[in-house]
Amino acid sequence: MPIRHTCLLTALVFAGLAPAFAQSTREAVREEVGNRVSENIPAIPAELVDRLNRYQNTRGATASGWTRDGCLLLGTRFSETSQVHRACQPMGMREQLTFYPEPVPGVLPAPAASGRDGFVFSKDVGGDEFSQLHWFDLQTREVSLLTDGKRSQNRGALFSDDGRQLAYSSTSRNGKDTDIWVRDMQTGAARAVVTEGGSWFPLDFSPDGKRLLVSRYVSIAESHPGEVDVASGKLTLFPVDGGQAAFGGFAYAPDGESVYYVSDEALDGQAQEFLTLRHHEPRSGRLEVLSADIPWDVSEFTVSDDGRHLAFVTNEDGIGKLRVLALPSHRPVALPDLPVGLAYGLSFSPDGSKLALSLNSATSPSDAYVIDLADRSLARWTRSEVGGLDADTFVAPTLVHFPTFDEVDGAPRMIPAFYYRPANIPAGTKLPVVVQIHGGPESQARPVFSPTTQFLVNELGMAVLVPNVRGSAGYGKTYLALDNAAKREDSVRDIGALLDWVGTRPELDAGRVGVYGGSYGGYMVLASMMHYPERIRAGVDIVGISHFGTFLKNTEDYRRHLRRAEYGDETDPAMAAIFDEISPLNGASKITSPLFVAQGKNDPRVPWTEAEQIVGAVRGNGQPVWYLLFNDEGHGFRKKTNSDYFTAATVLFWQQHLLP
After folding, report:
1. How many CB atoms are closer than 10 A to CB 506?
2. Are 473 and 547 within one domain?
3. Number of folded domains in the chain?
4. Which residues lie below 8 Å from residue 303, measured CB to CB, with a gap of 6+?
5. What DSSP letter does each residue of 213-270 carry, written as one string?
6. Which of 233, 258, 275 is the last residue of a domain?
7. What is the pLDDT of residues 209-234, one digit of tens each?
8. Which of 352, 502, 517, 606 minimizes the number of CB atoms within 10 Å of its CB?
9. Can you tell me the distance from the alpha carbon of 568 to that of 196, in angstroms, rounded to the nearest whole number?
10. DSSP H or E segment with residue 548
């Protein structure tokens, strides 16, 4: 039974936080149900639960690679969390293989040439992101733990071609640095081969398994690739033209000597805006840019085991476009027409004749597809449910651009946004607006399927705007760097420009605008409410940063240096002063609109104290705040029951504050 009572938020529990928080004595109605703690959230009406039910029972399926017998491993949810399934033919039965209360991501099938029949998967506890790697044997259905099982983060699993070695990244040595480990899959012995400090990741084994391509990640704009001798651990870093560049995938060509990679490294001394696919032959020094004619980022690529094809995806204004090249000629391979949307998760079949991928669009959840490269046919392997809804009624967004405060080449800088608009709007209607702000900040809002967005548009008649403010990925390195460090609030000014644009649209109601965002997007929600209180009627902050100084102090050790590269160093007095100036916690008195804050107690990225302190500070100023805390979640809500409750509460919040 729920426990409902009245409590006082006590400043003594959080001594040392902002004074506004210390003054918080406003009473909150608290309810505890299982792992859920909520404050000031009204009971969810049964009618709303019923209306949401079908939208909340949509699901997707993502391709996670091939087994040696030609079946596809899939990630999908049939109960509470996403688990591993297997399908062996187009539209065939999905056999569930894992049954855990926690989601199972990071699936890696053993190479067909290894003779091993199974896959590696990762799993954490309660969203704490201290993922452990496990081996699933498809013959015996037994599961074996591969990593230390302690408070360490293990990810990026990678098999050698013969399956005898498994490389992965781990923080097990000191909890701060991410080292590269290699495990002998026959003996079970594991050893660290790169312990240079920082965040290192394995990228590809050489065909003979003796060398390993690796990279040290500093920030989205800076990585340092190299090669390590697996036996000796000798590391050789590759030279980087210009001294600093971003690098994506890195893989050996079938010859084992030349490499394919993605980078924005300078070419002939000229800086490059986008991440391009390149082929480099170290012996001859020859460098070929394979995507030179595409002025967009290459987001991923993969090479077939038989060495005959390379597939890659470009991110073109948010849309994912697939291309395949024949090797070694690099001639384009003709492909069937694909649905417009996002293509990702590429994997060639063991014999190289087929290419599996996942496709997602604004009007369709993710599903697995397979292309037969010989006859250019496209086969759909899964058809995910949409809760019995008529998919033809789903709304696709329009890509719009709005002017912001600064200029480029003498003209206003234009900010892209996806605009979801209800169909058949009666003349004279003024629509309430929800602005959804992505996290990262080095991320990108893309037109993916969102049942919640479809509910807001179709059921509640609301407009939804999803901007990619400055600092977003996908639009070149210059755009990416526009919000770094002291320029942080320039991205908030982009939201102000979007509010101006809303005011110019006759179908939109500039007096009924809400903002919604998670993680860094949660900071953007709080900052927007702080700067534009008279123009934003309500806001929803999910796992958001309320003060960059306290965030950097309390985030997990392995993340701190990565986040300093983006936000700035809180130990620098000048940067600390900027954090104090721009952080919503110190400007909480300016947040005068209703606020809803939601958080996972186990969040290793943005600690739950970031939520607690902003809730206390805003309440301390006499403003109402809804607060939701899940004790079994981390950086976001991955369990269906939790996600459903949060969504219902959010919709109720919008109904109360944005609808007539």
Report:
1. 7
2. yes
3. 2
4. 251, 253, 254, 260, 309, 310, 327, 348
5. EEEEEEETTEEEEEEEETTT--EEEPP-TTS---EEEEEE-TTSSSEEEEE---BTTB
6. 233
7. 999 999 999 999 999 999 999 999 99
8. 352
9. 23
10. helix 548-554
